[in-house]
Specification:
The chain is of the alpha+beta class and 180 residues long. The chain has one domain: Alpha-Beta Complex (Peptide Deformylase). The chain is built from 3 helices and 7 strands; from the N terminus they run αβββββββαα. The longest helix has 20 residues. The radius of gyration is 16 Å and the shape is globular. Bound molecules: nickel (II) ion. Nickel (II) ion binds next to helix 2.
Length: 180
């Protein structure tokens, strides 16, 4: 059994909470980053935010360039902040490890500039562009939303949102019923 976190599913309250800023990139944070990355790969995700493993600090991991052969390039973000966003929008069919097997077209700014601290404690910036990398543009905004207690289903009507959450609850219960 590898060292991974359990991924928390809706409607857990921790997914609706605001995560707190990280003060210092120390060994505890580094261990959390690596364990979150392993958790993300183990669950075949492209991004994971701290809230999804029950931790309320502003930390996320992504790897949007995975192939069948293996891993792409992991990106670690600490205290990420969107400092600019385009007026134009892009649409992508998003999913979420905390809302398994549910997907919806979500509209977001087609480009954002993100300021963050990397795994070495260095200040960095990323400029996304939906035309060059649609998945990265949506993934980084989706993960930052998580740190603010916002889920992709929050962009949908309450009818659609509640339907998806009910489906996940049924799915989780069915899995639990099969575990002895
Ligand atoms: Ni998600």
């Amino acid at each position: 059994m590898s060292d991974v976190y359990e991924v928390i599913k809706v409607p857990a309250p921790v997914l609706k909470q605001q995560a707190e800023a990280v003060g210092e990139v120390d060994d505890t944070i580094t261990r959390q980053l690596h364990k979150m990355l392993e958790t993300m790969y183990a669950n075949k995700g492209v991004g994971l935010a701290a809230n999804q493993v029950g931790l309320l600090n502003r930390v996320l991991v992504m790897d949007v360039h995975q192939t069948k052969e293996g891993r792409g390039t992991p990106i670690y973000m600490i205290n990420p902040e969107i400092i600019w966003q385009a007026d134009e929008c892009s649409v992508y069919q998003e999913g979420c490890l905390s809302i398994p097997q549910q997907y919806a077209d979500i509209q977001r700014p087609a480009s954002v500039r993100v300021k963050y601290i990397d795994e070495h404690g260095q200040q960095q910036e990323m400029l996304t562009n939906a035309e060059e990398d649609l998945l990265l543009n949506h993934c980084v905004q989706h993960e930052i939303d998580h740190l603010n207690g916002r889920l992709f289903v929050d962009y949908l009507s309450s009818l659609k949102r509640n339907m998806m959450i009910k489906k996940v609850q049924k799915l989780v219960k069915a899995q639990e019923d099969h575990v002895l």
